[in-house]
Amino acid sequence: MSMAMMLQGSTAGVFLPLLMLFLIILLILIACKPWRFFTSLSSPSRTLKVGELERPLVLDDASALDQGNELTSNDLEGAYSQNEGLPHSPWTSELVCKQRLPSASPQLNQGDSIVLDVVSDQIEELSAGQTLRCPSLTEPLAEVQNRARQEDQSPNLKCGSCLSLEVISGPSRGLCCSVQSISASRLPLTLGRVSSDLLLKDSEVSGKHAMINWNADKNKWELVDMGSLNGTLLNSQLISHPDSGSRLWGDPVELSNGDIITLGTTSNVHVHVTSKFQSQTPFSVGMASDPMALRRGGKKLAMEDVCYYQWPVPGIPQFGVFGICDGHGGVAAAKSASKMLPEKVASILSDSLVRERVLLQCDASDVLRVAFSQTEADMNNYYEGCAATLLLVWADSDENFFAQCANVGDAACIMNVDGRQIKMTEDHRVSSYSERLRLNETGEPLRDGETRLYGLNLARMLGDKFMKQQDPRFSSEPYISETVHVKQASSAFALLASDGFWDVISLKKAVQLAMQAKQRYSAGGENVAEKVASILLTEAKTLRTEDNTSIVFLDFDRKYRISCKVDS
């Protein structure tokens, strides 16, 4: 009995250590996976037959990978390893290789195989939306890298476009923003209710609702829904993911000038796209605007400001226009004037004799005067009007700039050239001293304390045809400034703003704020003019202006200039 128990105990003592040793070896094998070295040698996913070389290395449609394609996910491991940090979006999913491999060469026979090694050093930097180029089998790697650098430095990639967005309905009506395709630091542009570039105070809009980005391959702006709850419409067509509850991103769709983006049900955003030639100003330009509110947190005012710029004026190289139209009684007159004034200037300057006279005399007074006169004649606004300020800028053959301004109303423009402050406009409010002198000369002087005519505080404006028929003291004759010369080596800027800005900020303070902002952001690679315009707008909001506020800022400093010469 005791002998049997002893044998049983010795057997258990030998078996338990062997079991433990077996389990340890099994765990080591599972952790090391030595079989992968054998299966990888014979895996068909590592080879391509000659007959299959005409297919793309990575398909445009990822779903096709499941339909008999011999390239498995293992083949993409090297190509995507450098891109793991990119956020998942439709633009990152387009990181594909569209260069097809060459067809069978004389050195390869039917049925032969070729092994493709993925070289991670081949692509130095990847960005969302970028397309990978696969080198030809016979093309040296150095030539591929050299060509990629040349493409990155190509001026065509820097032409781009300017996108402006205006909220035309909903709780944030009147809110505007603009961005240029060459402003990489500001892209992509997000639209939403929280921490977005276009911040919409609308409960039906998601925190991150939609995104706009520049597609350099197509030279087009693209809009994508970011998995919003209430969806995104483009010209009344749904562009969100079909499964609205999945919170998946939709597919990118191209944007065109005049499109209407609908976020939720009430917030409509108007899209304005200028051509790539118009956006290539030879100096830095920034725009910012806000309808403001009568009290903090209150309902936004109706937006009646319209700001615009064109460089060059269509068909007229080396000339550009920059302006603000501030409407009253509605926005219709401001929209009409902002469209007509650039067209009139372009039409007048299309005469080569007129253009040559401007360049020779450095004076565009006649051009500006006729443009305002023709605009007034063509406007059909009887019960709406607008203040209008237009800055005409042109360059000579030595790339010196000249600027001349015309205005009616109270939207002002100032310039600062090498520290010298220059007022480019005249105040045409009834209460201003210069305007009261003009009104007195008409033979019908104002009474003491009178600050309005027929309820209007302006005596000069475009439109308001009914008022002008009632009282001949109303006028559309613009004030025209002297021409300001900005030399190549000059440090200069121009600031145009509607009266909502000047109501709370003096000319002197505006110049100080602009110079401080320029100094603060000059070291960065961002568009300094856009930063300055944004800071000035924020300052007006902080000081609680009670009127629509729009700002256009031009920075002529040499370090922000690009050549604007036209090849003859």
TrEMBL record:
Gene3D superfamilies: 2.60.200.20, PPM-type phosphatase domain (3.60.40.10). It is an enzyme of class 3 (hydrolase). Its EC number is 3.1.3.16. InterPro entries: FHA_dom, PP2C, PP2C_BS, PPM-type-like_dom_sf, PPM-type_phosphatase-like_dom, SMAD_FHA_dom_sf. Residues 284-556 form the PPM-type phosphatase domain. Residues 189-239 form the FHA domain. It comes from the Eukaryota. Keywords: Hydrolase, Magnesium, Manganese, Metal-binding, Protein phosphatase. GO terms for molecular function: metal ion binding; protein serine/threonine phosphatase activity. Pfam families: FHA, PP2C. Its cofactor is Mn(2+); Mg(2+). PROSITE patterns: FHA_DOMAIN, PPM_1, PPM_2. This is protein-serine/threonine phosphatase. The gene is LOC105123607.
